[in-house]
Design a protein that fits this description.
Creatine Amidinohydrolase, six-stranded mixed sheet, Creatine Amidinohydrolase, Chain A, domain 1, alpha+beta, 12 helices, globular, 431 residues
């Protein structure tokens, strides 16, 4: 491997963020009068982080088919429709400074023209199984497995395992037939992705600022006669018009649907006194949000206020603990046990008192939950970005409060980047 490549570190490419300044919430335009997100610096940082994680592991190469990992390694994206098709893949070996990308048809030609950070010869067209619709018996998987094995052999790491994130089973079988030992590569990629650069933090902050605006829209529109799906449609329009590249989901839950939490939306019509909560999951330049807010329509009962205060208190206790060196079990310990808020066990309550890393995916490291953190704590580190979310059912048996904040871990604590007001229960169109 070239010495110059080996010596590059993520820290060389991305200076430590200056926590003494406010986090930037840039617009979408490129400008000549101030530094905004440097996308080539972002690419170099992410590739360096992946190289470092690969070299630290026992793997000889990473073969990624997860769209989030492909974007992390190659800084390419061909549309949200690719997310569930396993139609692209990328390979990074220990001895190569650059990833090789196999793309969907003409996208490979496009990237040779418009993605100069990738070597043209490393932009290849490929076709596997499209989730089984192309039969393995047609031989395409065997062909590409042989091609991948040849590249790995030439890289001198054929005797080491290849880390794979997601894969169609017949493709894994063909790789094994080609002489490759397959291992878990997702853990290596998640290790690479857990510490965010200043550019990544700026993109996450920008994505959160878009949802700040979306929640102001929700606050204005929450009134009797409006349906959950009306809110979902209008928020989709708002986000796409402000630069979102993927509105993954908008959970809209109101009234009697609040408890237990169904994690979806319907055409239910809002009524006076409804408690309603929303989760907006969307992406700006690949960086995502997971951002809950609870409202009441017109008025609120004492029980609804009480549920909100409890959810807010549990959340604030967790935020107070966030700083480098704290372990995730300490954070999970301030949240109520499942039985204390109406669930039979922690698995049934999973995701309600919850923390999760956020970046190119909704769920990255760390995961914070009583289900896993009490027995398997992990360390919180400077530069992590994650969401903390709490849930509390109301005494009426069907209302509930759900609040979530995204935080950036600084050198001494954390910064909250989800800024739509949530200290007290917002009551929209009060009467």
């Amino acid at each position: 491997m070239d010495d110059a490549v080996r010596k590059i570190t993520a820290e060389d490419i991305n200076p430590r963020h200056n926590w003494g300044r406010a986090l930037p919430a840039f617009g979408t335009m490129g400008v000549d009068f101030e530094e905004r997100v440097d996308y080539r610096r972002l690419h170099n940082y992410r590739l360096a982080r992946a190289r470092m994680a690969l070299e630290k592991s026992d793997l000889g190469a990473l073969l990624v088919m997860d769209t989030n990992n492909i974007r992390y390694l190659t800084s390419t994206k061909i549309g949200e429709w690719e997310r569930d098709k396993i139609c692209r893949w990328a390979l990074l070996t220990r001895s190569s400074p650059d990833p090789i990308l196999w793309d969907f048809g003409s996208a490979a030609v496009h990237h040779r023209l418009y993605s100069p950070w990738l070597k043209p010869e490393n932009c290849k067209a490929g076709l596997l199984g499209l989730r089984g619709t192309v039969s393995p018996s047609f031989g395409l998987m065997a062909k590409h497995a042989g091609e991948i094995a040849s590249i790995i052999r030439e890289a001198g790491v054929i005797d080491m395992a290849v880390g794979v994130d997601i894969i169609e089973p017949p493709m894994m079988f063909e790789l094994q037939k080609a002489g490759l030992k397959i291992a878990d590569g997702q853990q290596v990629m998640l290790e690479a992705r857990e510490i965010k650069s200043a550019d990544e933090i700026a993109l996450l902050n920008r994505a959160a600022s878009m949802v700040d605006g979306a929640y102001h829209l929700v606050y204005e529109q929450l009134k009797p006669g409006v349906r959950e799906n009306d809110i979902v449609a209008n928020v989709n329009q708002f986000l796409y018009s402000h630069g979102s590249d993927d509105v993954e989901a908008i959970n809209a839950i109101s009234g009697e649907r609040c408890n237990p939490h169904p994690h979806n939306f319907t055409d239910r019509m809002l009524r006076p006194g409804d408690q309603a909560f929303f989760d907006i999951l969307q992406s700006f330049m690949g960086y995502r949000t997971c951002y809950y807010r609870t409202f009441n329509v017109g008025r609120a009962t004492p029980g609804q206020h009480d549920a909100y205060k409890k959810a807010r208190n549990w959340l604030d206790k967790a935020i107070e603990l966030i700083k480098p060196g704290v372990s995730t079990d300490k954070v999970a310990s301030v949240w109520p046990k499942a039985e204390q808020f109406g669930f039979p066990d922690e698995t049934s309550a999973f995701g309600l008192q919850f923390g999760h890393g956020i970046g190119c995916a909704i769920h990255e490291r760390p995961i914070i939950s009583r289900v896993i953190s009490m027995d398997h704590p992990t360390e919180i580190k400077e530069g992590m970005v994650f969401a903390l979310e709490t849930y509390c059912p109301a005494a009426d048996g069907y209302s509930a409060a759900r609040i979530e904040e995204e935080v950036v871990v600084t050198d001494r604590g954390c910064r909250v980047i989800t800024l739509f007001p949530a200290e007290e229960l917002p009551i929209a169109n009060r009467y």
